[in-house]
Amino acid sequence: MPKVLIIGAGGVGGVVAHKCAANPDVFEQIVLASRTKSKCDAIADQVKQMQGREITTARVDADDVAETVELIEQVRPDLLINVALPYQDLPLMDACLQTKVDYLDTANYEPKDTAKFEYHWQWAYRERFRDAGIMALLGSGFDPGVTNVFCAHARDNLFDTIDTIDILDCNGGDHGHAFATNFNPEINIREITQAGRYWEGGEWVEIEAMSQDRVFDFPGVGERKAFLLYHEELESLVEHVPGLQRIRFWMTFGEEYLTHLRVLGNVGLTSIDPIEFQGHKIVPLQFLKALLPDPASLAEGYTGKTSIGCLIAGHKDGKPKEVFIHNICDHAETYREVRAQAVSYTTGVPASIGAEMMLTRTWHEPGVWNMEQFDSAPFLARLAECGLPWHVQER
Ligand code: NDP
User: Fold this and answer.
1) If you measure from the C-alpha of residue 87 to the centroid of ligand 1, how many angstroms do you get, rounded to a whole number?
2) How far away, in angstroms, is 393 Cα from ligand 1 center?
């Protein structure tokens, strides 16, 4: 009876719960646990109404390894899906090691006091996971996640050599708020306000945050300005795409969003350095998060589409070749299907497919792995069937 334990009941956690529930052959039992149990219960009610399945709920503080170990021992899952926050990655991996349970996440570890998201902390678990005979699959969301699998497909099936990769992420949607973030505000703002970074000619190049942009014609959305950011899949793809000369990541932002972000930054509200306020220590960005809309609450009435993909250039049979492998996802359609906006959906669907790959032993190898280290074909076949059709555009 394969059983999965999902940790985190935000926008992404809701989608993972729905998609696992909609696939009873693979996910026979589902437990959803998070810091606030009422959020798990609300998702369980919705899953019961829409998918006709019961899921069990629990409360856990995933920062506390002993508490998670106790929950895992009660539930005895075959796999733990971490869709809480990147801060919980290491404590949850420790709990999985102690209980010998497989692990999957969608975002790499970040220490609370430095906005640095890098894989070395999680890669350092490789030997311990291998020795314990358990598997960790890192970054099984959209970007990272599907973008890594698109690159693996290009590497293995479409090109003889890959020279450059540009990952392009556009949200062409409108949620009607002057300023809101589509996933956890604290994590989102930490990501955008740090220095930009890309890899070229064998080394990392650092640039000032948001200082390079390009206009790209996104299928399904149209022309949008995208800004160069550092993003975690660059770090693993550099390791796993031989011969690569350059890889960059770009994300679109509207003028309204950028103006708000600049003003909030200027007044110090995006800082992660604690300040004294009326006798309390507070982190300005955490205070700002408390004021901003919950990403899951944006879903109702959200219109427009996301368009995310990999622009890959290289050679095939001696000739230059360029493709854009991408998915287009509609906010209103994802709301109809699982009551979520497209950013949560494009993350939660690949998390549930990664989990299916592991539970069915299609992808299973003790150790700590990134998505592009496995055969892309079975994952991509399920991606299209599960609501995220993908396309290869020759350019
Ligand atoms: P939300 O903020 O909506 O949800 C986070 C959830 O985690 C909340 O339910 C929160 O509980 C819970 N949580 C936080 N801390 C703890 C803790 N210590 N113990 C237990 N539960 C905890 O975020 P999203 O759903 O938007 O994002 C979830 C994850 O997905 C993030 O890591 C994000 O970086 C990642 N992501 C990945 C993407 C990709 O493409 N790879 C894209 C988008 C997101 P509470 O309600 O109590 O705060």
Assistant:
1) 10
2) 33
The closest alpha carbon to 176, from 375, 354, 346, 332, belongs to 332
By CB atoms closer than 10 A (0-12, 13-18, 19+), residue 379 is buried
Tell me the C-alpha distance between 361 and 44, whole Å. 27
Mutation test residue for ligand 1: of 31, 64, 142, 183, the one with most atoms within 8 Å of CB: 183
Burial 30-43 (b: 16+ CB within 10 A, else e): bbbbbbeeebbeeb
10 ligand 1 Cβ < 6 A = yes
For 331-381, what is each residue's pLDDT tens digit?
999 999 999 999 999 999 999 999 999 999 999 999 999 999 999 999 999
| DSSP-derived secondary structure letter, 174 | B
Q: How far apart are CA 395 and CA 393, in angstroms?
A: 6
Ligand 1 proximity of 60 Cβ (cutoff 6 Å) = yes
Q: How far is CA 32 from CA 35, 47, 306, in A?
A: 11, 11, 27
Atom of ligand 1 nearest to the CA of 182: 26
